[in-house]
Amino acid sequence: MSSLEHARALVAEAGRVATFTGAGLSAESGIATFRDPTTGYWARYDPAELASPVGFAADPELVIDWYNHRRRTLAAAEPNAAHRSLAECADLIHVTQNVDDLLERAGARRVLHLHGSIGLDRCDRACGYEERIDLAAPPGLRPCPFCGAPIRPAVVWFGETLQEAVWNASVEAISRADLLLVIGTSGVVYPAAGLIDHARSTGAAVVVVNAEPIRSPADVVLIGSAVEFVPEILAGRRTGGPGGSPGSDVGRLD
Ligand code: OAD
After folding, report:
1. Which of the four pLDDT bands, split at 50, 70 and 90, describes residue 248?
2. Buried-most residue among 101, 149, 173, 226 (CB within 10 A)?
3. In terms of pTM, does the model score above 0.85?
């Protein structure tokens, strides 16, 4: 049995499946990853300047400009075949480090954004003000209409704590999963990456699809493109696996 067949069989047989995704899932939609040595954001920009509370305090305009550039890129992007096939399996729950909305635009409904959402702004002082913004025409630096503090993207920066409710829901989803499908992440940013070890510790099978090997342990590792492998892996589930698309239970013995 090839690794692809093994992965497909594990996914088709699993009861509850959760996914854990990173920038590699959206790479083939034209969204840059973070750690690619030439095109990755962190090869070209300093995360301390652009993705930290200290960086925002030092030069808020620079930070907003960078996020608005990313927002306009995202507005022009489309979900790829990997997003679409994940969305077609309506019973999957997605825990993502991605701040983009490509899974939702593909039709996925159960998406937990560990690192926040680039489509939302919030008050930097966390007074409670939040605003959904137009990705194609994002507003510039401005004060919070409630309290006057600067408005910032509702994403998690280095040195910040993840939103407790999202983290707890992610841990719960992965604790309940029989299989975790890990896609397009270097698995180096914690606490998010610890969810892969958590899945192992609760006895879930782990299948990894990534362009390069990662450190996390897995039952099956497929090295290559998400667009190439993810639809293939999910094929059995979409066409009759447990909890697949409506109608897929026909002929299933419980
Ligand atoms: P990385 O850039 O660290 O890793 C992306 C992974 O995707 C790499 O291992 C690539 O080899 C792989 N990859 C690239 N293209 C792919 C493709 N087409 N198909 C499959 N795999 C592909 O991105 P993340 O792991 O998402 O956090 O990074 C984690 C966090 O670090 C991000 O959420 C962000 C970043 O700093 C914050 O900003 C807080």
Report:
1. very low
2. 226
3. yes
